[in-house]
């Protein structure tokens, strides 16, 4: 990949899946370490298969968490997502976001939590693919330890032809998100790398302002 300028900072990506948001942070210049409870053979960076809550708790205890400039987590969304109501029962899914947020705050590191718009997050950033010129409609909410702000984005625009998620067009949807290395099943849970590339650059700007 051309055009990358390393910034010397590392992101810990908890519940990383196949690495959509990890890839965005990498594009923004970060090194990335991913953690997921499931094996992720297509994950493109350093990877640890582990329970994310247990892993974070352990590295807080050992002090290893200090290695990371930023801790990101995409706690499972099924307990909050509207689509779960269409296909099952939200009550069947454990809320990991609440204990996850508490543990991330305990770490003392700057943090980002990503989830569906229905999740109980403070929407410091609410992003859609159309804001980045992507031909996909995929809304995601981001709560950050710095509370938002920074560069302005164009408004969300659901123009004719914008791809919604549909199982019959999964390969095209994955590619339109920028997740070309994933298989279709992995991409069902993925978020476009453009989102975290932008979030990562907002944090870099904040980091630079604080260092000045």
TrEMBL record:
SUPFAM superfamilies: S-adenosyl-L-methionine-dependent methyltransferases
Keyword Methyltransferase recorded: yes
Keyword Methyltransferase: yes
Keyword field: Methyltransferase, Transferase
One BP annotation, GO: methylation
GO MF annotations, alphabetized: methyltransferase activity
Protein name per UniProt: DNA cytosine methyltransferase
Source organism (scientific name): Streptomyces asoensis
């Amino acid at each position: 990949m051309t055009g990358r300028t390393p910034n010397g900072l590392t992101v810990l990506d908890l519940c990383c899946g196949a690495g959509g948001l990890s890839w965005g942070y990498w594009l923004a210049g970060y090194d990335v370490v991913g953690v997921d409870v499931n094996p992720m053979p297509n994950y493109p960076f350093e990877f640890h298969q582990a329970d994310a809550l247990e892993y974070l708790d352990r590295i807080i205890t050992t002090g290893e968490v200090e290695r990371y400039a930023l801790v990101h987590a995409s706690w499972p969304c099924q307990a909050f997502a509207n689509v779960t109501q269409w296909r099952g029962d939200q009550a069947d899914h454990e809320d990991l976001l609440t204990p996850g947020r508490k543990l991330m705050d305990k770490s003392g590191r700057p943090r980002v939590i990503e989830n569906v718009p229905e999740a109980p997050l403070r929407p410091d950033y609410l992003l859609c693919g159309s804001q980045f010129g992507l031909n996909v409609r995929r809304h995601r909410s981001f709560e950050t330890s710095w509370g938002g702000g920074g560069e302005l984005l164009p408004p969300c625009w659901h123009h004719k032809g914008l791809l919604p998620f549909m199982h019959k067009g999964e390969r095209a949807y994955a590619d339109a998100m920028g997740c070309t290395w994933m298989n279709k099943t992995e991409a069902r849970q993925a978020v476009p790398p453009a989102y975290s590339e932008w979030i990562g650059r907002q944090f870099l700007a904040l980091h630079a302002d604080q260092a000045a």
